[in-house]
């Protein structure tokens, strides 16, 4: 019969030291750049090729994570049917192919161009502005393409009203689930976009930036670039419990939680009478 250890020699294991909390405020410096026509914001025009490929890519991600690829493939099948003049017109207005490789290449070329222009003007803030514009565009397109995919599916379902009742019922249930899971779908699509941005940054942009601006860029505006490697960049409001629990630290949400975000921020900034304790 195996022995059951009841007593253990030696002292109690030491508790690990508590982490040191520090407050920090994200800051983006756009010094030396002139504002746009409204004298408030900066004007940025993205490449039409990049915009077209990005929209198609975001729509593809939303359809895939929303389990609607089968329904949208039926849309292409039905557009190929009918009179020759209709199919010819549909061919003219056909959506671009959902080529993930083409979107990634266009993204890399766009950001390399912004670095070259920043080097030409001796302003790293030019590249920061381009990165902000790309991020804002992708965040906006996620919601727009979700609505676009939803509307395309609704139009397609109307053609099933008088035929294929079983198939129509299946697609309606799938579309209802798609709407309920909006937050989850946008999170998954956003994280896949983030993975592509991070891969381009680590494989190409970081090396190119060092070669153009040198190692002295480790100060000043250069500190802004880690902000673009934060997964919460593509969350709905900058806070996502799922992402925090999986990749960072998930804080409490209820008023009675001792690790609520507001309370932890007060402790980190030194404005709270509470202090972290090693007991309990």
Brief descriptors of the model:
0% strand, globular, mainly alpha, 280 residues
Radius of gyration, whole Å: 26 Å
Give the rounded overall mean pLDDT.
Answer: 79
Strand content: under 5%
Question: Largest sheet, described in full?
Answer: none
Sheet/helix structural class = mainly alpha
Number of E-state strands: 0
- What overall form do the CA principal axes indicate? globular
DSSP helical segment count: 9
Between the first and last Cα atoms, what is the distance in angstroms?
Answer: 37 Å
Can you tell me about this structure?
The radius of gyration is 26 Å and the shape is globular. It is mainly alpha-helical and 280 residues long. The chain has a domain of 173 residues. Helix content is 57%, strand content 0%.
Short structural description:
The protein is mainly alpha-helical and 280 residues long. It is 57% helix and 0% strand. The chain has a domain at 48-81 and 92-230.
Give the SSE map.
Blueprint: H1 48-65, H2 69-79, H3 84-92, H4 100-121, H5 124-158, H6 165-180, H7 182-213, H8 241-247, H9 261-269
Helix pairs in contact: 1-4, 1-5, 1-7, 2-5, 4-5, 4-7, 5-6, 5-7
């Amino acid at each position: 019969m195996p022995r059951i250890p009841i007593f253990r020699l030696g002292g109690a294991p030491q508790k690990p030291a508590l982490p040191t909390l520090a407050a920090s405020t994200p800051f983006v410096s756009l010094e030396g750049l002139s504002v746009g026509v409204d004298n408030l914001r900066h004007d940025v025009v993205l490449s039409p090729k990049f915009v077209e490929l990005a929209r198609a890519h975001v729509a593809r991600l939303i359809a895939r994570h929303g389990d609607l690829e089968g329904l949208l493939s039926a849309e292409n099948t039905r557009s190929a049917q009918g009179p020759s003049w209709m199919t010819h017109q549909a061919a003219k207005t056909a959506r671009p192919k959902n080529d993930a490789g083409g979107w990634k290449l266009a993204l890399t070329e766009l950001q390399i161009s912004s670095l070259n222009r920043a080097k030409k003007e001796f302003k790293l803030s030019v590249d920061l502005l381009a990165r902000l514009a790309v991020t804002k565009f992708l965040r906006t397109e996620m919601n727009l393409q979700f609505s676009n995919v939803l509307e395309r599916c609704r139009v397609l379902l109307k053609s099933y009203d008088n035929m294929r009742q079983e198939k129509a019922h299946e697609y309606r249930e799938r579309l209802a689930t798609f709407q309920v899971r909006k937050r989850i779908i946008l999170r998954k699509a956003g994280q896949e976009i983030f993975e592509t941005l991070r891969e381009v940054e680590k494989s190409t942009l970081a090396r190119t930036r060092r070669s153009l601006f040198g190692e002295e860029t480790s100060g000043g505006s250069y500190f802004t670039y880690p902000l673009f490697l934060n997964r919460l960049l593509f969350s709905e409001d900058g806070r996502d419990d799922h992402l925090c629990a999986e990749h960072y630290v998930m804080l409490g949400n209820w008023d009675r939680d001792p690790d609520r975000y507001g309370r932890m921020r007060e402790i980190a900034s030194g404005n709270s009478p509470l202090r972290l304790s090693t007991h309990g």
